[in-house]
Structures
1.
Amino acid sequence: MGPTVKSILESGFKLEGKYIPDYGELERMVKLLKESGYTIVLTQGVWDMYHVGHSRYLIKARSFGDVLVVGIDSDELARQMKGEDRPFEGFDERIELLAGLSFINILTRRDVGQHHYGLIKIVRPDVLVMSKTTSSFTEDDKEALEEYCGQIEHLEAQAPPASISTTAKIRRLRQGGAKELGERISRAIERELADYLGGSDAKNQSDCLHPHTQPASSGVVQTAPRE
């Protein structure tokens, strides 16, 4: 059984009570909520490597209304927008994490092939919340979307990007991985060199102590030939 008005308003912690991937069903549900007098807020993003900045942003978004709808980019869309190495976490993991947040009421999916404004046109939120760091959102976009939104709110980044942003975390992981790999290679080279030098020293010492030593006997007793 999918989400109901009751499960959405109770805002529990289960994915099945919040996730509406079908846009037709999403449109129907949002219409019911609006008719009941609830203010609908929409925001969207990748939500990769969830951190405190994301949490602050979403809590702030929820404060603009009664029901918070969050669009989550599919893995394919995230790669298209962020690069081939993203997302760091898969869609299933990201959506399950967001489902556990009580201040989110509805979760849905954004995918490749949909219109850039597709989700916004379906939900037609009373308040659309955008991040000021979204460089792809222009003044022309804002004017075009005014037809579908009651108002548009632009939020500042809710955490110092250099310390806890997703990009910063990935950068630190890469740097740490490169450092660890370099250290492992260095240790391996040192071991190989030590083994090589150790073997050469042992042979040299043996030659010095026993310069005329013949190879060890095979154990077979040799007898002089009879004349």
Note: The beta strands are 40-45, 67-73, 106-110, 127-131, 151-155.
2.
Amino acid sequence: MGLMACLALLAGTGPSVAQNLVQGRPAARQAAPADTAGFRAPQLDATMATIAFHRLNGSTPDFNRQAETSQAYRSATAFDRDQVRARERSRLEAQFRAFDLSRDYLVRVSTTLNQYDLARRGYAIPFNEASYVTFYDNTTGRQLGVQIRNVDALNFISIPDVANARDFAQRNNLNMQSDIASSIVLEAVIRLAETGSAEQNSGNPLLIRADAVAARVMTNNGRDARVIHAFSVAPPASASSRLVERPLKAADVQGLRLGMARAEAEALAAAAYPDGGKRQADGATAYFEGLAQGAEPLCGVERDRGSPVQRADGSPVFFSVPDRSAACLALQMDDAKLARIVSGQRLDTATRDEVRAALEEKYGPPSLVQEGGTFLTWQGPDPAIPNSPAVQINARMQEAGTGNLRSVLLGIEVRSARAVGPVAAPARPGGPRL
């Protein structure tokens, strides 16, 4: 993406903390012992932090701009630059879709261990009041801060007994005379929670809030780094990621519902999209309104081939919103019956809150809310079909553009609650078609 990770603490840190290592230097990377699986979580870098912000914020990065800052694009000749940009954009979009907000990530901060405090009976670890780990997005020039909300659980090594503290210092070869006992690397396994109040389009740093679920202190001496203290961090309370079936108020999209006969479904779709024509690809039939000139006619072929549609606990994986037209509708059949529906819409006069209110008005309270309220899931039987098997409705809202060009992208997917195989955006006024 052309992003450069700069791991440092924000303003307010002492001079020693300003010597923080850049994320991913070998001194920190070699430190994790083999028997601590949690610390083998993927290490968060600037690229991943930027994706996480947008996924939690319900927004979309400028993929074209990011592609143009990539090394591949900068190295391309005038003859193949357009092809390279398209290839890089495709790669970045796939990376955006594949990012898993539900898993834990690792951050490493190079800092110091202060001298033993006789009054507090322990060693303090300087971590600025804002509790940020910061990254730099070279594409936009913006800083992005990851704020650890429970930082108090990992900024002080308590050793009440002075004799034990002396043993600790001797065992770990700490300096027992100066104000700084040692240079260290603080490793924290974090769980991404939400975005902060920073406006995406202001000049202020973007903010992600996260909770530490594990942390440890390492010596900062390259390949010989070792653990000198492991914190006991209570896992933060978090909302369940499991779907809970509940009665649905509706289970259709624009009158289309699972199990509908092919002829009836295609007739309804053709009547709703009379001017955009229909196209068939990857086993799906797609209908469009306002397909952008030169855009690839896709609606619903959003998951990589072979990737799962849900996790082991039943919660859905990321569903990206079709964005190549003002509106589109894709139908997938199974034995001449409608087996999956995908709808994509670009709305230029509705806010995200208004779209969510419209969704809940039609389908009822969601069974699962993820990614800061931008990814909603409903699961239950279709109320229009007695004794029908459960269906799952996924709706995702993303903000795109700024100012007068701002719009909300809405993607809706209706499928069986059981896993099915994968199916292969000018703006329109008004509210969403539901």
Note: DSSP finds eight helices and 17 strands in the chain.
